[in-house]
From TrEMBL:
Transcription regulation recorded as keyword: yes
Identification of the protein by name: TetR family transcriptional regulator
PANTHER family: HTH-TYPE TRANSCRIPTIONAL REGULATOR RUTR (PTHR30055), MYCOFACTOCIN BIOSYNTHESIS TRANSCRIPTIONAL REGULATOR MFTR-RELATED (PTHR30055:SF238)
HTH tetR-type domain: residues covered: 19-79
GO molecular function terms attached to this record: DNA-binding transcription factor activity; transcription cis-regulatory region binding
Pfam families tied to this protein: TetR_N
Residue ranges for the DNA-binding region feature of this UniProt entry: 42-61
Lineage, top ranks: Bacteria, Bacillati, Actinomycetota, Actinomycetes, Kitasatosporales
Source species of the chain: Streptomyces genisteinicus
Keywords: DNA-binding, Transcription, Transcription regulation
InterPro entries linked to this entry: Homeodomain-like_sf, HTH-type_TetR-like_transc_reg, HTH_TetR
Cross-referenced SUPFAM superfamilies: Homeodomain-like
Record-linked PROSITE patterns: HTH_TETR_2 (PS50977)
Length: 207
């Protein structure tokens, strides 16, 4: 008579831990891309930077450029959550007060350097544009929920497009005009100022 054997090896990772690993990989990839360029960076190096194998890196991401997506996606989720909680009648800028200094927020570390790389790295540019394409429906759902608007109301989609374009323009303007030699605190302050300007411009057209 045989007995059933329990599962051996490492226990499966929780969804929360998987998300944390993806984010760790993303941050490591961005750091390496900035330091030595995309072409010179390998999956093995990215994995070593966070203590995982290259096999784990490729399990989560199809290409090394796509490794940066969790950082950008985290920003989308944070923005959508802020929009849902934005009180009617209050300035849009106030909805993002808690995000200006958060690493996962709008003004996170290395944003400018990463976006500058998208000018010369087609793979990163594709990820950047695709992320913004995915952001619009997320923002539209949040704005519709905030306003308790019906699914067939086109206004949330229009507002989301305005907000998305404003945020992208602000980040790209910052990335291409800030002094790359600026210290981290100054770069964050400059990016925050650009984002506040973008939010004010977008808010003028959002009810």
């Amino acid at each position: 008579m045989t007995t059933a054997r329990g599962r051996t090896g490492r226990p499966p990772l929780s969804e929360e831990r998987k998300a944390a690993v993806r984010l760790e990989i993303a941050r490591a990839a961005v750091g390496l891309f900035i330091a030595q360029g995309v072409a010179a960076t390998t999956g093995e190096q990215i994995g070593q930077a966070v203590g995982v194998s290259s096999r784990t890196v490729w399990r989560y991401f199809p290409t090394k450029e796509s490794c940066v997506r969790p950082l950008l996606s985290t920003g989308i989720e944070a923005i959508a959550a802020a929009l849902r909680q934005w009180p009617p009648g209050r300035p849009l800028d106030e909805a993002f007060d808690g995000m200006w200094t958060a690493d996962a927020g709008l003004a996170g570390p290395d944003v400018g350097a990463l976006v500058r790389l998208t000018r010369t790295e087609p793979g990163l540019r594709a990820v950047w544009l695709q992320t913004h394409d995915e952001a619009e429906p997320a923002f539209a759902r949040a704005l519709a929920e905030r306003g308790r608007l019906p699914a067939d109301d086109v206004r949330p989609a229009i507002w989301a497009a305005m907000l998305n374009a404003a945020l992208r323009a602000a980040v790209e303007h910052h990335a291409h005009h800030v002094d790359p030699g600026s210290d981290a605190a100054r770069a964050r302050a400059d990016l925050t100022a650009a984002l506040r300007t973008a939010l004010a411009a977008a808010a003028a057209g959002i009810a």
